[in-house]
Amino acid sequence: MYTASDLRKGLRIKIDGEPYIIVEFTFVKPGKGQALYRCKLKNMLTGAQVERNFRSVDTFEQADLQEKKMQFLYASEGKYCFMDSETYEQIFLTEEQVGEAKNFLVDNLEVEVLLFENRPLGVSLPNFVDLVVTKAEPWAKGDTVSGNTKPVTLQTGYQIQVPTFIEEGEKIRVDTRTGEYLTRVKG
Amino acid sequence: MNRITAANLWRARGKNIPLRNLILRAIRLFFLRRHYLEVETPYLIPAPAPEIYIDAYALGGLYLHTSPELAMKRLLALGYHRIFQICKCFRQGEKGAKHLPEFTLLEWYRVGSNYISLMEECEAMLASVFGRIGKEKKLLYQGQAIDLSLPWERLTVEDAFREFAPLSLGEVLKRDCFDEAMAVYIEPHLGVKRPTFLYDYPYHPGSLARRKEKDPSFVERFELYIGGLELINGFTELTDPEEQRIRFCEARKLREQAGKDPYPLAERFLSALAAVPEAAGAALGIDRLTMLAANSDHIEEVVAFTGEEL
Predict the structure, then answer these.
(1) Are B123 and B229 a contacting pair, CB within 8 Å?
(2) Could you report the per-residue pLDDT of B94-151, keeping only the tens digit for each?
(3) Closest chain A C-alpha to B217 CA, distance in angstroms
(4) Which residue pairs, CB below 8 angstroms and at least 24 apart, start in B29-36?
(5) Cα–Cα 20 to 30 A to B93, which of A68, A165, A179, B270?
(6) What residues in A contact B94, CB-CB < 8 Å?
């Protein structure tokens, strides 16, 4: 249980049964008056932002989030299917819930799915994922200027800048935190 | 808002610590020239003034004072006529961009004065302080150019609600959301183009201000706002011990109902109050004044350290 004085940016609390994260927080108090805790909150299920003012007497339940190891199985019609690595139970996430992670989801990838009371909120990826280049302009032999890059398309449809020597069909390693090319993967 | 990083913080403090000292010296000079006596009173006291929303730290059977008000009025009762004090005050749970649980207060009292003449003294004092730090005419605060030419704006609380809030002061009081409405609708507009004295506050339990003769549901109290910052609280002092006792009991009851320490009743203060002549007094937040002068939006930038950093 939290009280209003525990409120701070980044804290996750439960309001009306839904998980919220505090994105902005201001303590306001007229000299002789009652303290007011002004918060901007983001609903972690819907992404909607709301503004709420709390008083010192207000108390909050912690939004308990769990992370579960799951395997990505497939995507179909905007639904992303994951399987619990322990129970083999399958769940579906929407494109919105998957967010940026969709660019790096390859079949059988091990991820952590963030859950709130068994409702999925999002996915956290391993830091590095290997992906196949499915479309690339051939390397112009004359281009020897180092540091030059070209755009290629990966198996997930994600477009990325890579060094000019990368060819179609090759595998590359991508940093999922920055979305940037890291290195070529042999084999 | 600027993100506080360690490097930013120390760069700001490097400028603000000397500025703060300059402000303190200017304040002392102003009051000494007006024949005020600088006094010191204990920080550890047996009975703080009971206020429902101001919480003192308890310490070994005593309390850290939340303001030097009761002790300074004891001095008025003893015959001191013009006194000021610059001291640390302590209020539990107050922490934010404009609040520290340990902060510096300037408090001063003048016998024969009332809240109207006190507003003028606030103007004179701040004009003199701003002048000494090279800000005679204009103050640039958080992107706003605040016109400092005298006299400053005066606005009753009732008129402020009429002007800025979607509901009247009467309705706000009926719904018991005065503080929230002040914070949300009123304060952001105050002192933005020029400093604003907001005055004639509705009575609240525990108040030490005199009631208005014409309408006793209001007290003769003002707050000075500059750039949206609440800087000075002042009022005509209540000198009737019986009424003060009733107000203290009222506030203690509210504290008890809220599950808070009601504090012992300040009996010695109450018996001394009969000897306090007509007077007015005000308190100014030194940290906030430094924020204004330094164009800083965070109170931690104007102190050498916060307690947590040590």
Answers:
(1) no
(2) 999 999 999 999 999 999 999 999 999 999 999 999 999 999 899 999 999 999 999 9
(3) 17
(4) B29/B128, B29/B132, B30/B124, B30/B125, B30/B128, B30/B129, B31/B82, B31/B84, B31/B108, B31/B125, B34/B82, B35/B82, B36/B82, B36/B83, B36/B84, B36/B108, B36/B110
(5) B270
(6) 27, 29, 35
